[in-house]
Amino acid sequence: MAFDYVVVGGGTAGCVLASRLSQDPDVQVLLLEAGGATRPAAMADPMRWTFLVGTEVDWAYETVPQPGAGGAICSWPRGKVLGGSSSINAVMHTRGHRDSYDAWADAGATGWDYPTMLPFLKRIERAVDAPDSRYRGMNGPMIVAQGEVAHPLWEGAVEAAVEVGHPGATDLNNGLEEGVGWSEYNVVDGVRQSAADAYLVPGLERPNLAVVTGAQARRLLLDGGRCSGVEYTKDGELRTASAERQVVLAAGAIGSPQLLLLSGIGPAAQLREAGVDVAADLAGVGEGLHDHPMTTVGYRTTRPVRAAAFVRKPHVRLRSDPADPIDLHLIFSDSPAPSTGTPGAGDGYAMRVALMTPFSRGSVRLNPADPEGAPLIDPNYLAEERDVERMVVGVRRAREVGEAKAFSPWRDRELLPGPDVRDAAACREYVRRSVTTYFHPVGTCRIGVDDGAVVDPELRVRGVEGLRVADASVMPMIVSANTNATTLAIAERAAVLMTGNP
Ligand SMILES: Cc1cc2nc3c(=O)[nH]c(=O)nc-3n(C[C@H](O)[C@H](O)[C@H](O)COP(=O)(O)OP(=O)(O)OC[C@H]3O[C@@H](n4cnc5c(N)ncnc54)[C@H](O)[C@@H]3O)c2cc1C
Fold first, then answer.
1. Cα–Cα distance for residue pair 354/194, rounded to 1 Å
2. SS3 content of the chain, % helix, strand, coil (to 5)
3. Where is the Glucose-methanol-choline oxidoreductase N-terminal domain (predicted)?
4. How many CB atoms lie within 10 A of CB 219?
5. 169-180 residue pLDDT tens
């Protein structure tokens, strides 16, 4: 069947694209999503996101062994359902500091600086608690709010952070501030709001929008140097969809490069090794993978802290070196050990300590033994020693907060890293032993103008007509924030670039 636009992947970005492109009743839009439309009950409850990991709505990827993490294999969940990872994520709505976007432009992503991105970051959101509409959107589809219920432990956490010198921010999402502030969430009346809920569902009745779930794209159809459509499987049957105008990949930081590689667009040597005919030798496809590496500083408490309701919590943005941009993030948790659960950890509070500007880079490559199966995912965590050093600073700064007087009514003792981990060498070893994902892979189809770039600053795949990528994979460098909001904004901007309608 012929469409004007075929969008591959109905995740965070794909839902925005399908919605915005189909606003024009004269164009026919097809959205292909490998996962299903039905959602387990736990998906609605923002407190139960960890219960979704490893279920049928998760691709349940794993990394290759990580030398920087003592050879560990990390679990890498990714949403496989309408809404994609926004349907299984931890619902934090966090925008990057302006430095993040300005750094994109400086690296060759012309036109992706903060002033250009700000209208798109505003367009996505209805920020009900935000103080200043110059920086925050008030009319967008995603409702953004601080948790409705306060908890004395987290009021104490704000005090603790201020006590040890972090400035109290009025709005950590305005792109300008640092220090401690309240997190914002995509939660409405206690229920998760995914990109599918906010963008896709309201447009599902449109006669010019077709959404096919259980439809896994297998390869792109290339006609000379032009992408003319997509081959996909549905109910075990191979089907094709053609695109008169364009195909846009929104299959995420793993799915988009894998589909390009399976279609012969990527590094020629890797394609040949996997038995794929080379259509366009594009060195950067799948390269440049990075994520925020994360560790935990956790404390047992003298009494239970876990609330029955979804409570608001603060987070802290800071710099490991005052001369450098923001590079560390502390998010508070009511589980003293890693969020995927450590049996017997007991009651407590923790800070997840994440490095927001890692220098280490890895890759997503086809598995030559099974190119259509799960790709070889290598975030190459902590390959750069300077990443370890900054995480050690993060552990120290988290300990300052965790040991502050404001926490003393609650604190029993430090659980992680633990009393034996004190000097720099022990902290480095702890960081390597405990590093895990913050669930934010990016960079595998990065925007740029150099030979390693995959898409140009208008998101067009270099060397192929009629094909764009618009999802988390295009970020040249990861932002100093959780990645969902920025991915929504990338897709909003992509829709404008594609249609020419502001
Ligand atoms: C467990 C978890 C917790 C997270 N917590 C947060 C958080 O609290 N805040 C935050 O900001 N970010 C968070 N993130 C990250 C955030 O959700 C992602 O950055 C964002 O969703 C990425 O959007 P995307 O459109 O690039 O990819 P996705 O949303 O992953 O969408 C990709 C879609 O493409 C589909 N797809 C893939 N391959 C194919 C194919 N071949 N054919 C058809 N369809 C395909 C997938 O099934 C998926 O639906 C979290 C992520 C996870 C996994």
1. 24
2. 25, 30, 45
3. 252-266
4. 18
5. 999 999 999 999
Domain annotation for the chain: domains and CATH numbers: 1-56+77-147+192-290+443-502 (3.50.50.60), 149-182+293-355+382-434 (3.30.410.40)
- The question of whether 440 is a catalytic residue gets the answer yes
Residue of 55, 85, 254, 447 to mutate, ligand 1, most atoms within 8 A of C-beta: 85
Q: What is the mean pLDDT of the chain?
A: 96
Two structure tokens written together for 397: 């700064």
Q: Which atom of ligand 1 is nearest to the CA of 82?
A: 49
Give the distance (Å) from ligand 1 centre to CA of residue 422: 37
Q: Kindly report, residue by residue over 247-283, the tens digit of the pLDDT.
A: 999 999 999 999 999 999 999 999 999 999 999 999 9
Q: How far is the CA of 58 from the centre of ligand 1 (A)?
A: 10
Model pLDDT for residues 467-499, shown as the tens digit of each residue: 999 999 999 999 999 999 999 999 999 999 999
Query: What is the sign of the dihedral through the CA atoms of 224, 228, 231 and 237?
Result: negative
Residue of minimum CA distance from atom 46 in ligand 1: 80
